[in-house]
Design brief:
This protein is about 35% helix and about 30% strand. The chain is α/β, with parallel strands linked by helices and about 110 residues long. The strands form two sheets. Strands 2-1-3-6-7 form a five-stranded parallel sheet, sandwiched between helices. Strands 4-5 form a two-stranded antiparallel ribbon. The two termini are about 20 Å apart.
Length: about 110
């Protein structure tokens, strides 16, 4: 049986490590990227089941690639994370969920199960 896969695209190292530890303990395979361009490449190579995508990344706005990721990864649920309250226009898709920072591991657990 293969492990479920999680891709974390976020430039906050502490958050990435926290999420990686959380998912690893739940038997997920985890890959992290700290820039959008690297994260897109990882997504196309790794084919994750879950993507955590931050909006404000060093090289671009992460959420601008939400539609692209939905199309490229039909098996994936995508969680858009941001500390900002304003939400840009996003495609309507049941696989797309917005979560605000600070993240609660309890809330994340309820979203993935």
């Amino acid at each position: 049986m293969s492990l479920r896969k999680v891709l974390i695209i976020d430039d906050e190292m502490d958050l990435c490590i926290l999420l990686k530890n959380f998912f690893t303990k739940q038997n997920f395979e985890v890959v992290m990227s700290h820039k959008l361009s690297d994260g897109i490449r990882e997504a196309l190579d790794f084919f994750p089941d879950i993507v955590f995508l931050d909006n404000n990344l060093p090289d671009s706005q992460g959420w601008s690639k939400a539609k692209y990721l939905l199309e490229a990864l039909p098996q994936a649920n995508i969680f858009l994370i941001s500390a900002y309250k304003s939400i840009p226009s996003l495609p309507e898709d049941p696989r797309l969920t917005i979560i605000e920072k600070p993240l609660s591991l309890k809330a994340i657990e309820s979203l993935i199960h």
